[in-house]
Amino acid sequence: MGELHLVHGSDESLLGQAMVELVRRLVGEADRSLMVSDLTLDGEDVTVGQLVGEAQTPPFLTDKRVVIGRGADLLDADALAILKPYLEHPLDSTDLVLVHPGKPRKALLDVIKAAGGIAMATDVGSTRRDRVAFVEEQVAASGVRLTTGASALLVDQLGEDVNRLTGLLDTITATYGAAGIRLDVDDLMPFLGDAGGVPPWDLTDAIDRGDRPTALGALARMSGAGGRHPLQVMAVLHAHYGRLLRLDGSGAQNEAAAGEILGIRGFGARKALERSRAMGSGPVHEAIQLLAQADLDLRGQRELPEQAVLEVLVARLCRLSGSRGPARPARR
User: Fold this and answer.
1) Is the pLDDT of residue 8 over 70?
2) What 8-state DSSP symbol labels residue 163?
3) Helix 185-192 to helix 165-176 angle, to the nearest 10 degrees?
4) Which one, 126, 205, 209, 262, has least CB within 10 Å?
């Protein structure tokens, strides 16, 4: 029985890596040039009808064929009507792989599911937990063995740039072998290179804790590997403290009321409400003033390097967050 796959994701690099691994598995030791037919749908020169025709073609000098259909985002209702009859009666000797940039529509997912196919998302989730799970899964699949400390270092160093992971693991495997020794932090360090970018909440969470070293580190990675312009960083901070300002004096007593004011729901509303209460009115208003002055400095009021303006701002915001001192555990 032939396999049916829908591989989708918005990160072109991760999507490409997933396709390389999948096709490698499907082809195995056979001759790729005889097995694989790779089409890119465009709706004109290459249509879904041609894709179906390829899928219906028996193999020649091999046991099976692998047919790849890129551009599956073009599969609208009319195209799916052409594809569905084949999926209901597929050729056993054909493995069909559809490649979809971005998030597929429900109609396409339903068709794949009804045909017994596998939909594989290549995007990594937005949280640290998602990144940890992705890195651990890829490391395990590569055969590389890491200590707990080395694994944590790898996640921290990659940050958002998880598309670097495959190349890094290939280099490690070439050096130590797929079943090599268990690598510790010192063994891993020479392979890591520069730290990758980090998501905006790494910065705002560190500021909220009053953790200046971590906040400045997150700022450096957002501005460096993350490639964020200073005004983009300012937009992140404005949005964060703007929520706190809107809640200040609003009378919101619970998550639902905060969400109604902010136009968001769930964890984000609860987190903003808790932070607004923890800071208090004075520090929130002072933070807004610091942001306003930094905006002026970035636009040339004072001749200061842009990164210096951001670093001073972040340090001052951390001081505000920690101005009430660390919370003490209640005595029992």
Assistant:
1) yes
2) G
3) 120
4) 126
